[in-house]
User: What shape does this take?
Amino acid sequence: MFLYGFMQRAFQASILISLIAPMLGLFLILRRQSLMADTLSHVSLAGVALGLLLGYDPTWMNILVVVIVAGILEYLRKVYRTYSEISIAILMSGGMAVALVLMGLNDSGATVSIQQFLFGSIVTISVQQVWMLLILTLIIIVLYSVFRKPMYTLTFDEETAYTAGLPIQFMSVMFNILTGVTIALIMPIVGALLVSAILILPAAISIRLSKSFNGVIFIGIGVALIGMIMGLVGSYYLGTPPGATITLIYISIFSLLAVFK
Amino acid sequence: MQYIKVDDLAFHYEDEPVLENICFEVNAGDFAMLTGENGAAKSTLLRNILGLLKPTKGSVTLSKKNTEGEKLVVGYIPQQVASFNAGFPSTVLELVNSGRYPRGKWFKKLDKEDKEHVRKSLESVGMWEMRNKKIGELSGGQKQRISIARVFAMDPDLFILDEPTTGMDVNSREEFYKLLQHASEYHDKGILMVTHDHEEIRHYANKHIELIRKEGSPWRCFSMDSCKERSKHPSSFH
Assistant: This one.
Protein backbone atom coordinates (compact mmCIF):
# COMPACT_ATOMS: atom_id res chain seq x y z
CA MET A 1 0.00 0.00 0.00
CA PHE A 2 2.81 2.42 0.91
CA LEU A 3 4.55 1.71 -2.38
CA TYR A 4 2.00 3.86 -4.13
CA GLY A 5 2.83 7.55 -4.23
CA PHE A 6 -0.83 8.56 -3.91
CA MET A 7 -1.19 6.49 -0.72
CA GLN A 8 1.94 8.06 0.75
CA ARG A 9 0.51 11.49 0.03
CA ALA A 10 -2.87 10.43 1.41
CA PHE A 11 -1.25 9.38 4.71
CA GLN A 12 0.82 12.55 4.89
CA ALA A 13 -2.32 14.64 4.33
CA SER A 14 -4.27 12.59 6.90
CA ILE A 15 -1.68 13.13 9.61
CA LEU A 16 -1.69 16.87 8.91
CA ILE A 17 -5.51 17.02 8.95
CA SER A 18 -5.49 15.10 12.26
CA LEU A 19 -3.36 17.84 13.79
CA ILE A 20 -5.59 20.64 12.51
CA ALA A 21 -9.07 19.19 12.97
CA PRO A 22 -9.34 19.10 16.80
CA MET A 23 -8.03 22.65 17.18
CA LEU A 24 -10.54 24.14 14.76
CA GLY A 25 -13.27 21.65 15.60
CA LEU A 26 -13.24 22.42 19.31
CA PHE A 27 -13.67 26.15 18.74
CA LEU A 28 -16.35 25.53 16.12
CA ILE A 29 -18.31 23.36 18.56
CA LEU A 30 -17.95 25.73 21.50
CA ARG A 31 -18.88 28.76 19.39
CA ARG A 32 -21.94 26.82 18.21
CA GLN A 33 -20.66 26.98 14.66
CA SER A 34 -20.44 23.26 13.95
CA LEU A 35 -22.53 23.74 10.84
CA MET A 36 -20.30 26.55 9.63
CA ALA A 37 -17.85 23.95 8.31
CA ASP A 38 -20.70 22.40 6.33
CA THR A 39 -21.73 25.79 5.01
CA LEU A 40 -18.24 26.72 3.94
CA SER A 41 -17.75 23.37 2.25
CA HIS A 42 -20.90 23.97 0.18
CA VAL A 43 -19.67 27.46 -0.61
CA SER A 44 -16.29 26.08 -1.58
CA LEU A 45 -18.02 23.97 -4.20
CA ALA A 46 -19.17 27.25 -5.73
CA GLY A 47 -15.54 28.43 -5.61
CA VAL A 48 -14.41 25.30 -7.44
CA ALA A 49 -17.20 25.63 -10.02
CA LEU A 50 -16.27 29.29 -10.58
CA GLY A 51 -12.60 28.38 -11.01
CA LEU A 52 -13.44 25.66 -13.52
CA LEU A 53 -15.81 27.96 -15.42
CA LEU A 54 -13.30 30.82 -15.65
CA GLY A 55 -10.38 28.51 -16.31
CA TYR A 56 -8.47 29.45 -13.12
CA ASP A 57 -6.88 27.04 -10.64
CA PRO A 58 -9.94 25.81 -8.66
CA THR A 59 -7.95 25.55 -5.40
CA TRP A 60 -7.01 29.25 -5.36
CA MET A 61 -10.41 30.40 -6.58
CA ASN A 62 -11.94 28.20 -3.91
CA ILE A 63 -9.80 29.76 -1.16
CA LEU A 64 -10.69 33.27 -2.37
CA VAL A 65 -14.45 32.61 -2.44
CA VAL A 66 -14.45 30.83 0.94
CA VAL A 67 -12.47 33.62 2.62
CA ILE A 68 -14.97 36.23 1.37
CA VAL A 69 -17.94 34.15 2.51
CA ALA A 70 -16.32 33.47 5.90
CA GLY A 71 -16.32 37.25 6.44
CA ILE A 72 -19.96 37.51 5.35
CA LEU A 73 -20.85 34.69 7.77
CA GLU A 74 -19.52 36.66 10.70
CA TYR A 75 -21.53 39.70 9.58
CA LEU A 76 -24.73 37.64 9.32
CA ARG A 77 -24.00 36.03 12.69
CA LYS A 78 -24.06 39.53 14.19
CA VAL A 79 -27.19 40.62 12.30
CA TYR A 80 -29.11 37.49 13.36
CA ARG A 81 -27.52 37.28 16.79
CA THR A 82 -30.34 35.33 18.40
CA TYR A 83 -30.88 33.03 15.44
CA SER A 84 -27.33 32.70 14.16
CA GLU A 85 -28.18 29.46 12.33
CA ILE A 86 -30.08 31.59 9.80
CA SER A 87 -26.74 32.71 8.35
CA ILE A 88 -25.82 29.03 7.96
CA ALA A 89 -29.06 28.24 6.12
CA ILE A 90 -28.75 31.25 3.80
CA LEU A 91 -25.15 30.64 2.81
CA MET A 92 -25.34 26.85 2.65
CA SER A 93 -28.24 26.85 0.21
CA GLY A 94 -26.81 29.90 -1.58
CA GLY A 95 -23.41 28.22 -2.02
CA MET A 96 -24.95 25.04 -3.37
CA ALA A 97 -27.24 27.01 -5.70
CA VAL A 98 -24.37 29.06 -7.10
CA ALA A 99 -22.29 25.90 -7.57
CA LEU A 100 -25.10 24.17 -9.49
CA VAL A 101 -25.78 27.22 -11.68
CA LEU A 102 -22.09 27.65 -12.48
CA MET A 103 -21.80 23.95 -13.31
CA GLY A 104 -24.82 24.34 -15.59
CA LEU A 105 -23.13 27.23 -17.37
CA ASN A 106 -19.95 25.22 -17.84
CA ASP A 107 -20.27 22.98 -20.90
CA SER A 108 -16.65 21.85 -20.95
CA GLY A 109 -17.36 18.52 -19.26
CA ALA A 110 -16.05 19.61 -15.87
CA THR A 111 -18.75 17.68 -14.00
CA VAL A 112 -16.29 14.90 -13.25
CA SER A 113 -14.00 17.34 -11.44
CA ILE A 114 -16.92 18.69 -9.42
CA GLN A 115 -17.80 15.15 -8.38
CA GLN A 116 -14.27 14.65 -7.12
CA PHE A 117 -14.69 17.74 -4.94
CA LEU A 118 -18.12 16.62 -3.80
CA PHE A 119 -17.08 13.15 -2.65
CA GLY A 120 -13.30 13.52 -2.30
CA SER A 121 -10.66 11.20 -3.64
CA ILE A 122 -7.31 10.11 -2.32
CA VAL A 123 -5.93 9.73 -5.83
CA THR A 124 -6.38 13.44 -6.46
CA ILE A 125 -3.99 14.59 -3.74
CA SER A 126 -1.03 16.30 -5.33
CA VAL A 127 2.39 17.04 -3.86
CA GLN A 128 1.44 20.75 -4.01
CA GLN A 129 -1.65 20.09 -1.87
CA VAL A 130 0.40 18.23 0.74
CA TRP A 131 2.83 21.14 0.91
CA MET A 132 -0.02 23.63 1.22
CA LEU A 133 -1.54 21.52 4.00
CA LEU A 134 1.82 21.37 5.78
CA ILE A 135 2.16 25.15 5.66
CA LEU A 136 -1.43 25.58 6.87
CA THR A 137 -0.85 23.09 9.70
CA LEU A 138 2.25 24.96 10.85
CA ILE A 139 0.36 28.28 10.72
CA ILE A 140 -2.55 26.86 12.75
CA ILE A 141 -0.25 25.31 15.37
CA VAL A 142 1.62 28.60 15.77
CA LEU A 143 -1.62 30.62 15.92
CA TYR A 144 -3.12 28.20 18.44
CA SER A 145 -0.02 28.38 20.65
CA VAL A 146 0.05 32.19 20.54
CA PHE A 147 -3.68 32.93 20.73
CA ARG A 148 -4.86 30.04 22.92
CA LYS A 149 -5.66 32.28 25.88
CA PRO A 150 -7.56 35.00 23.98
CA MET A 151 -9.47 32.32 22.06
CA TYR A 152 -10.30 30.46 25.29
CA THR A 153 -11.72 33.68 26.74
CA LEU A 154 -13.58 34.62 23.56
CA THR A 155 -15.06 31.15 23.26
CA PHE A 156 -16.14 30.99 26.88
CA ASP A 157 -18.08 34.23 26.75
CA GLU A 158 -17.88 36.94 24.09
CA GLU A 159 -19.18 39.68 26.38
CA THR A 160 -16.61 39.17 29.11
CA ALA A 161 -13.96 38.87 26.39
CA TYR A 162 -15.07 42.26 25.06
CA THR A 163 -14.94 43.85 28.50
CA ALA A 164 -11.49 42.34 28.99
CA GLY A 165 -10.39 44.41 25.99
CA LEU A 166 -10.15 41.71 23.31
CA PRO A 167 -10.88 42.67 19.67
CA ILE A 168 -13.65 40.08 19.47
CA GLN A 169 -14.93 41.08 16.02
CA PHE A 170 -11.49 40.86 14.44
CA MET A 171 -10.72 37.57 16.16
CA SER A 172 -14.02 36.05 15.04
CA VAL A 173 -13.47 37.06 11.42
CA MET A 174 -9.89 35.76 11.47
CA PHE A 175 -11.06 32.45 12.93
CA ASN A 176 -13.73 32.12 10.23
CA ILE A 177 -11.21 32.88 7.51
CA LEU A 178 -8.75 30.32 8.86
CA THR A 179 -11.54 27.76 9.00
CA GLY A 180 -12.50 28.68 5.43
CA VAL A 181 -8.96 28.23 4.10
CA THR A 182 -8.68 24.88 5.90
CA ILE A 183 -11.93 23.68 4.41
CA ALA A 184 -10.91 24.83 0.94
CA LEU A 185 -7.72 22.81 1.23
CA ILE A 186 -9.08 19.59 2.73
CA MET A 187 -12.31 19.55 0.73
CA PRO A 188 -10.79 17.91 -2.36
CA ILE A 189 -9.38 15.14 -0.13
CA VAL A 190 -12.37 14.20 2.02
CA GLY A 191 -15.19 15.65 -0.08
CA ALA A 192 -17.42 18.67 0.48
CA LEU A 193 -20.18 16.55 1.95
CA LEU A 194 -17.99 15.20 4.76
CA VAL A 195 -15.63 18.05 5.59
CA SER A 196 -17.60 19.10 8.66
CA ALA A 197 -17.61 15.55 10.04
CA ILE A 198 -13.83 15.33 9.67
CA LEU A 199 -13.39 18.65 11.48
CA ILE A 200 -16.03 18.28 14.17
CA LEU A 201 -16.13 14.63 15.22
CA PRO A 202 -12.63 14.27 16.77
CA ALA A 203 -13.31 17.25 19.06
CA ALA A 204 -16.86 16.06 19.75
CA ILE A 205 -15.44 12.70 20.89
CA SER A 206 -12.58 14.15 22.94
CA ILE A 207 -14.85 16.61 24.79
CA ARG A 208 -16.40 13.54 26.43
CA LEU A 209 -13.00 12.18 27.39
CA SER A 210 -11.20 15.14 28.90
CA LYS A 211 -11.89 17.54 31.73
CA SER A 212 -9.50 20.22 30.55
CA PHE A 213 -9.33 22.42 27.49
CA ASN A 214 -5.82 21.40 26.44
CA GLY A 215 -6.68 17.78 27.16
CA VAL A 216 -9.51 17.96 24.62
CA ILE A 217 -7.06 19.12 21.96
CA PHE A 218 -4.46 16.42 22.69
CA ILE A 219 -6.99 13.59 22.95
CA GLY A 220 -8.71 14.97 19.85
CA ILE A 221 -5.47 14.70 17.88
CA GLY A 222 -5.15 11.07 19.01
CA VAL A 223 -8.75 10.31 18.02
CA ALA A 224 -8.27 12.04 14.66
CA LEU A 225 -5.10 10.06 13.93
CA ILE A 226 -6.83 6.77 14.74
CA GLY A 227 -9.90 7.65 12.65
CA MET A 228 -7.98 9.02 9.66
CA ILE A 229 -5.42 6.20 9.45
CA MET A 230 -7.94 3.40 10.06
CA GLY A 231 -10.25 5.06 7.55
CA LEU A 232 -7.59 5.30 4.88
CA VAL A 233 -6.45 1.70 5.34
CA GLY A 234 -10.07 0.52 5.34
CA SER A 235 -10.86 2.56 2.27
CA TYR A 236 -7.82 1.10 0.44
CA TYR A 237 -8.71 -2.53 1.15
CA LEU A 238 -12.48 -2.23 0.86
CA GLY A 239 -12.47 0.14 -2.10
CA THR A 240 -14.78 2.54 -0.25
CA PRO A 241 -14.65 6.37 -0.39
CA PRO A 242 -12.07 7.59 2.18
CA GLY A 243 -14.11 10.50 3.57
CA ALA A 244 -17.12 8.28 4.23
CA THR A 245 -14.99 5.48 5.72
CA ILE A 246 -13.23 7.89 8.09
CA THR A 247 -16.56 9.43 9.12
CA LEU A 248 -18.04 6.01 9.89
CA ILE A 249 -15.06 5.14 12.08
CA TYR A 250 -15.51 8.40 14.01
CA ILE A 251 -19.22 7.71 14.43
CA SER A 252 -18.44 4.17 15.66
CA ILE A 253 -16.05 5.60 18.29
CA PHE A 254 -18.65 8.20 19.24
CA SER A 255 -21.36 5.52 19.58
CA LEU A 256 -19.13 3.25 21.67
CA LEU A 257 -18.43 6.16 24.00
CA ALA A 258 -22.10 7.01 24.23
CA VAL A 259 -22.85 3.44 25.28
CA PHE A 260 -19.96 2.83 27.68
CA LYS A 261 -19.28 6.29 29.14
CA MET B 1 -10.92 59.48 40.52
CA GLN B 2 -13.97 59.01 38.30
CA TYR B 3 -14.23 55.53 36.75
CA ILE B 4 -17.77 55.72 35.33
CA LYS B 5 -19.69 58.82 34.38
CA VAL B 6 -23.19 58.39 32.99
CA ASP B 7 -24.58 61.65 31.69
CA ASP B 8 -28.25 62.05 30.75
CA LEU B 9 -28.34 58.58 29.23
CA ALA B 10 -31.43 57.36 27.42
CA PHE B 11 -31.84 53.97 25.82
CA HIS B 12 -34.58 52.76 23.49
CA TYR B 13 -35.27 49.17 22.53
CA GLU B 14 -36.25 49.68 18.90
CA ASP B 15 -38.66 52.61 19.37
CA GLU B 16 -39.64 51.94 22.95
CA PRO B 17 -37.89 54.15 25.53
CA VAL B 18 -36.74 52.07 28.50
CA LEU B 19 -34.21 54.32 30.18
CA GLU B 20 -34.24 58.07 30.42
CA ASN B 21 -32.38 60.84 32.20
CA ILE B 22 -29.85 58.51 33.82
CA CYS B 23 -27.04 60.39 35.53
CA PHE B 24 -24.56 59.06 38.04
CA GLU B 25 -20.89 58.48 38.69
CA VAL B 26 -18.88 55.69 40.18
CA ASN B 27 -15.45 56.63 41.48
CA ALA B 28 -12.45 54.70 42.66
CA GLY B 29 -13.27 53.61 46.21
CA ASP B 30 -17.05 53.60 45.63
CA PHE B 31 -19.17 50.56 46.38
CA ALA B 32 -22.33 51.44 44.47
CA MET B 33 -25.42 49.28 44.41
CA LEU B 34 -27.85 49.55 41.52
CA THR B 35 -31.37 48.54 42.42
CA GLY B 36 -34.80 48.59 40.84
CA GLU B 37 -37.81 46.36 40.35
CA ASN B 38 -37.77 43.35 38.04
CA GLY B 39 -37.65 44.63 34.47
CA ALA B 40 -36.17 47.98 35.47
CA ALA B 41 -33.52 47.64 32.73
CA LYS B 42 -30.67 47.38 35.24
CA SER B 43 -28.77 44.88 33.10
CA THR B 44 -29.45 47.03 30.04
CA LEU B 45 -27.89 49.97 31.86
CA LEU B 46 -24.79 47.92 32.72
CA ARG B 47 -24.49 46.78 29.11
CA ASN B 48 -24.64 50.43 28.01
CA ILE B 49 -21.86 51.27 30.44
CA LEU B 50 -19.69 48.42 29.17
CA GLY B 51 -20.18 49.40 25.53
CA LEU B 52 -22.13 46.24 24.69
CA LEU B 53 -25.13 48.45 23.85
CA LYS B 54 -25.10 51.97 22.48
CA PRO B 55 -27.06 54.68 24.32
CA THR B 56 -29.80 56.32 22.26
CA LYS B 57 -29.01 59.65 23.90
CA GLY B 58 -26.48 60.97 26.38
CA SER B 59 -23.10 59.51 27.11
CA VAL B 60 -21.18 57.02 29.17
CA THR B 61 -17.56 57.70 29.98
CA LEU B 62 -15.50 54.79 31.21
CA SER B 63 -12.08 55.86 32.43
CA LYS B 64 -9.17 54.51 30.40
CA LYS B 65 -6.73 54.61 33.33
CA ASN B 66 -6.78 53.53 36.96
CA THR B 67 -5.61 55.58 39.92
CA GLU B 68 -2.00 54.62 39.20
CA GLY B 69 -2.17 55.75 35.57
CA GLU B 70 -2.23 52.20 34.22
CA LYS B 71 -4.82 50.77 31.82
CA LEU B 72 -8.13 50.31 33.65
CA VAL B 73 -9.03 46.65 34.07
CA VAL B 74 -12.77 45.92 34.25
CA GLY B 75 -14.09 42.73 35.83
CA TYR B 76 -17.60 41.90 34.66
CA ILE B 77 -19.93 39.19 35.89
CA PRO B 78 -22.99 38.96 33.63
CA GLN B 79 -26.43 38.04 34.94
CA GLN B 80 -27.16 34.33 35.36
CA VAL B 81 -23.57 33.45 34.73
CA ALA B 82 -24.26 30.09 36.36
CA SER B 83 -26.04 29.02 33.20
CA PHE B 84 -22.84 29.61 31.23
CA ASN B 85 -21.61 27.29 28.58
CA ALA B 86 -22.21 24.22 30.76
CA GLY B 87 -20.47 21.85 28.36
CA PHE B 88 -17.35 24.00 28.11
CA PRO B 89 -14.40 21.63 28.54
CA SER B 90 -12.46 23.34 31.25
CA THR B 91 -11.40 22.68 34.81
CA VAL B 92 -12.22 25.17 37.54
CA LEU B 93 -8.53 26.06 37.76
CA GLU B 94 -8.25 26.73 34.01
CA LEU B 95 -11.25 29.03 34.13
CA VAL B 96 -10.08 31.00 37.15
CA ASN B 97 -6.56 31.19 35.67
CA SER B 98 -8.16 32.89 32.67
CA GLY B 99 -9.08 35.74 35.01
CA ARG B 100 -5.37 36.65 35.09
CA TYR B 101 -5.02 36.90 31.30
CA PRO B 102 -6.23 40.54 31.05
CA ARG B 103 -3.49 41.41 33.56
CA GLY B 104 -0.91 41.44 30.76
CA LYS B 105 -0.83 37.65 30.48
CA TRP B 106 -2.54 37.05 27.14
CA PHE B 107 0.76 35.99 25.64
CA LYS B 108 2.83 35.20 28.72
CA LYS B 109 2.94 32.30 31.14
CA LEU B 110 1.29 32.82 34.51
CA ASP B 111 3.98 33.39 37.13
CA LYS B 112 4.10 32.61 40.84
CA GLU B 113 2.27 35.81 41.74
CA ASP B 114 -0.55 35.03 39.29
CA LYS B 115 -0.93 31.54 40.71
CA GLU B 116 -1.03 32.94 44.23
CA HIS B 117 -3.83 35.34 43.17
CA VAL B 118 -5.76 32.44 41.68
CA ARG B 119 -5.32 30.30 44.79
CA LYS B 120 -6.45 33.10 47.11
CA SER B 121 -9.44 33.86 44.88
CA LEU B 122 -10.57 30.26 44.88
CA GLU B 123 -10.03 30.01 48.63
CA SER B 124 -12.03 33.19 49.21
CA VAL B 125 -15.10 31.56 47.70
CA GLY B 126 -14.39 28.13 49.21
CA MET B 127 -13.67 26.45 45.88
CA TRP B 128 -9.94 25.62 46.08
CA GLU B 129 -10.65 21.95 46.80
CA MET B 130 -12.76 21.76 43.65
CA ARG B 131 -10.07 23.22 41.38
CA ASN B 132 -9.59 20.08 39.31
CA LYS B 133 -13.31 19.51 38.69
CA LYS B 134 -14.81 20.05 35.27
CA ILE B 135 -16.91 23.21 35.37
CA GLY B 136 -19.87 21.46 33.77
CA GLU B 137 -20.08 19.15 36.82
CA LEU B 138 -20.64 21.99 39.29
CA SER B 139 -23.93 23.07 40.80
CA GLY B 140 -25.44 26.48 39.98
CA GLY B 141 -24.16 28.02 43.23
CA GLN B 142 -20.67 26.62 42.66
CA LYS B 143 -20.58 28.01 39.12
CA GLN B 144 -21.53 31.39 40.56
CA ARG B 145 -18.67 31.14 43.05
CA ILE B 146 -16.05 30.31 40.44
CA SER B 147 -17.28 33.21 38.31
CA ILE B 148 -16.68 35.43 41.31
CA ALA B 149 -13.28 33.81 41.89
CA ARG B 150 -12.39 34.47 38.27
CA VAL B 151 -13.16 38.16 38.68
CA PHE B 152 -11.26 38.33 41.97
CA ALA B 153 -8.30 36.63 40.29
CA MET B 154 -8.38 39.37 37.68
CA ASP B 155 -7.91 41.92 40.49
CA PRO B 156 -9.80 44.52 38.43
CA ASP B 157 -9.82 48.23 39.13
CA LEU B 158 -13.54 48.36 38.44
CA PHE B 159 -16.03 45.59 39.24
CA ILE B 160 -19.28 45.55 37.26
CA LEU B 161 -21.45 42.84 38.73
CA ASP B 162 -24.93 41.83 37.64
CA GLU B 163 -26.67 40.03 40.49
CA PRO B 164 -23.53 38.07 41.33
CA THR B 165 -24.91 36.42 44.47
CA THR B 166 -27.82 34.55 42.88
CA GLY B 167 -27.87 31.05 44.31
CA MET B 168 -25.53 31.81 47.22
CA ASP B 169 -26.53 31.30 50.86
CA VAL B 170 -26.72 34.19 53.37
CA ASN B 171 -23.31 33.55 54.94
CA SER B 172 -21.54 33.34 51.57
CA ARG B 173 -23.26 36.52 50.45
CA GLU B 174 -22.12 38.38 53.55
CA GLU B 175 -18.55 37.15 53.10
CA PHE B 176 -18.69 38.34 49.51
CA TYR B 177 -19.98 41.80 50.44
CA LYS B 178 -17.23 42.12 53.06
CA LEU B 179 -14.60 41.28 50.45
CA LEU B 180 -16.03 43.90 48.11
CA GLN B 181 -16.21 46.49 50.86
CA HIS B 182 -12.58 45.78 51.76
CA ALA B 183 -11.57 46.06 48.09
CA SER B 184 -13.26 49.45 47.73
CA GLU B 185 -12.17 50.90 51.07
CA TYR B 186 -8.59 49.70 51.25
CA HIS B 187 -7.63 49.10 47.62
CA ASP B 188 -9.52 51.93 45.93
CA LYS B 189 -11.51 49.60 43.69
CA GLY B 190 -14.68 50.94 42.08
CA ILE B 191 -17.72 48.67 42.34
CA LEU B 192 -21.08 48.86 40.60
CA MET B 193 -23.33 45.98 41.53
CA VAL B 194 -26.88 45.21 40.46
CA THR B 195 -28.74 43.61 43.33
CA HIS B 196 -32.11 42.83 44.78
CA ASP B 197 -30.65 42.45 48.28
CA HIS B 198 -30.87 46.13 49.03
CA GLU B 199 -31.33 45.65 52.77
CA GLU B 200 -28.38 43.27 53.06
CA ILE B 201 -25.94 45.42 51.14
CA ARG B 202 -26.75 48.86 52.44
CA HIS B 203 -24.43 48.26 55.42
CA TYR B 204 -21.52 47.70 53.05
CA ALA B 205 -22.20 49.99 50.09
CA ASN B 206 -21.59 53.72 50.18
CA LYS B 207 -23.67 54.64 47.16
CA HIS B 208 -27.14 53.67 46.02
CA ILE B 209 -28.48 54.15 42.51
CA GLU B 210 -32.09 53.25 42.10
CA LEU B 211 -34.01 52.95 38.86
CA ILE B 212 -37.54 54.09 39.38
CA ARG B 213 -40.44 55.25 37.22
CA LYS B 214 -43.95 56.56 37.12
CA GLU B 215 -46.38 54.17 35.51
CA GLY B 216 -46.05 54.07 31.74
CA SER B 217 -42.82 56.10 31.66
CA PRO B 218 -39.26 54.95 31.04
CA TRP B 219 -37.04 54.09 34.00
CA ARG B 220 -35.25 57.06 35.52
CA CYS B 221 -32.46 57.36 37.96
CA PHE B 222 -32.64 58.26 41.61
CA SER B 223 -29.15 58.38 42.93
CA MET B 224 -28.02 58.73 46.51
CA ASP B 225 -24.47 59.25 47.64
CA SER B 226 -24.10 57.99 51.20
CA CYS B 227 -27.85 58.42 51.44
CA LYS B 228 -27.55 62.04 50.28
CA GLU B 229 -29.75 62.82 47.32
CA ARG B 230 -27.72 63.80 44.28
CA SER B 231 -30.29 63.97 41.53
CA LYS B 232 -33.97 64.61 41.19
CA HIS B 233 -36.19 62.70 43.60
CA PRO B 234 -38.77 60.56 41.79
CA SER B 235 -41.61 62.55 43.30
CA SER B 236 -40.39 65.56 41.33
CA PHE B 237 -40.56 63.71 37.96
CA HIS B 238 -43.06 65.12 35.54
Observations:
- The helical segments of chain B are 42-50, 92-97, 112-124, 140-154, 170-187, 198-201.
- Residues 35 and 210 of chain B are 5 Å apart (CA to CA).
- The radius of gyration of chain B is 18 Å.
